[in-house]
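General statements about sequence and structure are easier to judge against a single worked case. For one protein, we set the task of working out the structure tokens from the amino acid sequence alone. The sequence in question and its structure tokens are set out directly beneath this paragraph.
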Amino acid sequence: MMSMALLAAAQTVADTLAGVNPVLTPVASGEPEMNLWDMACKGGWIMIVLAIMSVIAFYVFFERAFAIRKAGKEDPLFMDRIRDYIKTGEIKSAINYCRMVNTPSARMIEKGITRMGRPVSDVQAAIENTGNIEVAKLENGLAIIATVSSGAPMLGFLGTVTGMVRAFWNMANAGNNIDITLLSSGIYEAMITTVGGLVVGIAAMFAYNHLVYRVDKVVNQMEARTMAFMDLINEPNEKQ
């Protein structure tokens, strides 16, 4: 009798534990997974704005990268040839050679050659003015990338705020019938726009810094050419 009572008690405990900890039903593995396109669509209209900003930023990036690369290409013997032309008095040939090379440094030297015979300060001022114009041309469009770099994350945070407002609005209107599906759209918008804004902003920041680095290299090249040309036109004065 005692053994039967123990078996009955054990069965009762087992039934109680089974009721407290029900067996979980495994999740079906055949459900479709969310891809990047679905995530972007759930981000709302802000994702469209971010997409347009990214297209503009990277168009400017590739266009500027090509232009800066072209500006930095120059014959390493450029100043030697200019020196030979000036020493032999072939000023027109030197000007034509600068026009043929057609780089920012060449245009600066061309402006300096056309001012030869004037005071050195006037020649240097003309070269510096031309250099400032050339640098402005190289930096054209960089402000757009900088704006995208700083504005995209802020736009993403705006989407976070609007998404959370939508989620709480749906929660308030649901009353006691709160369902997770009522909150999902707002939470999706809040999280996805933040991710999208950060991705676009970080990519634009790296693109901007790369272009600034490339422009600085071209500017250093222009300054080296300017110093070499000023030394060249000062040589006759030193010999006298």
Notes: The radius of gyration is 35 Å. The chain is about 80% helix and 0% strand. The mean pLDDT is 78. The first helix runs from residue 2 to 20.
